[in-house]
Specification:
Mean pLDDT of chain A: 95
CATH class of chain A: Mainly Alpha
Number of helices of chain A: 8
Largest sheet of chain A: 2 strands, antiparallel
Strand content of chain A: under 5%
Distance between the termini of chain A: 18 Å
Order of helices and strands of chain A: HHHEEHHHHH
Oligomer: homodimer
Helix content of chain A: 55-70%
Largest interface: A-B, 39 and 39 residues
Number of domains of chain A: 1
CATH architecture of chain A: Orthogonal Bundle
Shape of chain A: elongated
Low-confidence stretches of chain A: none
Chain lengths: 143, 143
DNA sequence: TCTTAAATATGATTATTATCATATTTTATT
DNA sequence: AATAAAATATGATAATAATCATATTTAAGA
C-alpha cells in the first residue's frame, strides 16, 4: 500500500516521536540501526522530511534530528502526503480519471468507503496519539 | 494500490467478460485500443492470464481470447493474486513481519479492518457479477 | 580559530516495474 | 501442402523506485 520510502519515513518519525526532543537529539548513524533501515537511505528521507518541516534538526556537534512539540502534533497523513503518496492513496483502483459515486468504476463499490475510512483515520491521528498507544502497550513500535 | 499490470489485467478480463464468449473471440490487436493499454504490454499480460487458466484462448486464424463460462465465475481477487499482488494487499502497512491484533504495528488499528473488508469483497465478487453491474448501469466499464 | 561532528546537497548505482519487439508455434482456410 | 492469422515464448529497452556514496556546510568545543 505504501512505498518503502513512506514506510521508512513513518518509522523514522515515530522513532523520533518516542525517543527524541529538543534536548535529546538523535543522530542518523544511530537511528539507522535502531529502526533497521539502510543508513544512507534513511538519511536522505530525513533530509526530505526536515526540508518540509515535519521534523527538526540542527547541524554540527551535538546536533541531530528530533521532533519539536509542534512536529508531534502532525498527523500521520501529513507524512504520507509529504512522501508523495497522495496519488496512490486517493486514486481510483482502476485509474479511471473521474471515478466517483455518479460514475463509478467496476471496483468502486468494493473499496471506496474503506479507502476513505483509512485516509480519514490517517488524517485524524497525530503522532502524539501513536506515541501514547505505544507507551500504553496498545501497539508495538514497528522495527 | 494495484500495480499497472494488475489494473490492466482486470480491465482486460472485464473487457472479455463483457464482450467475448467461445463463439466470439477477441484479438489482442483489437483489444489494446479498446481498453487503452499498449498492445505489446497487454499481449504479455493476456499470455500470463492464459497460462494460469484465468482466460481462454485459441491460436491461428479465427483464434483469439475469450472467457469460458467457467472463467467468468472467477473472483476479482483471483486476478489480483495471479498478478502477484498478494504481498501488497495482505502485508502490514509498515512491513512488520508478524503484525496482528496481538502484536499490532502502530497503524494496525487505522487500516486493518478496512483492508480486510476490501480483500473480502474482492474475493466474494465474481467477474459475472461485475458484468451484471455494468449491464444494469450500476458501474461503468473502466477505460 | 581549528578541529570535529553533525546535517545538507547532490549525484551515482542498482533493482524493479513497465513497456516494446520479434521469432516460433499452432490452426483454419485455400 | 501452402498460406496466413492468430497466440506463445522469450528477451530487450526504458522508466521509476530503492539504495549507496561523497563533497559541502554548519556549529560546538578545545
Amino acid at each position: 500500500m505504501f512505498s518503502n520510502s513512506t514506510k521508512y519515513a513513518i518509522k523514522a518519525v515515530l522513532y523520533l516521536a518516542v525517543n527524541s526532543s529538543e534536548e535529546k537529539k538523535v543522530v542518523v548513524n544511530d537511528m539507522a540501526g535502531l529502526i533497521n533501515v539502510p543508513k544512507a537511505y534513511i538519511a536522505k528521507i530525513l533530509q526530505e522530511l526536515s526540508k518540509k518541516n515535519l521534523i527538526s534538526s540542527t547541524r554540527g556537534p551535538k546536533g541531530g534530528f528530533y521532533l519539536s512539540e509542534d512536529n508531534k502534533k502532525a498527523k500521520v497523513y501529513d507524512i504520507v502526503i509529504a512522501m508523495d503518496e497522495e496519488q496512490r492513496m486517493n486514486s481510483c483502483l482502476l485509474s479511471l480519471k473521474k471515478c466517483n459515486i455518479d460514475n463509478p468504476c467496476s471496483l468502486h463499490h468494493l473499496a471506496y468507503n474503506e479507502k476513505e475510512a483509512i485516509i480519514r483515520k490517517l488524517n485524524n491521528t497525530s503522532l502524539e496519539e501513536l506515541v501514547e498507544h505505544i507507551k500504553t502497550g496498545k501497539s508495538v513500535f514497528p522495527i
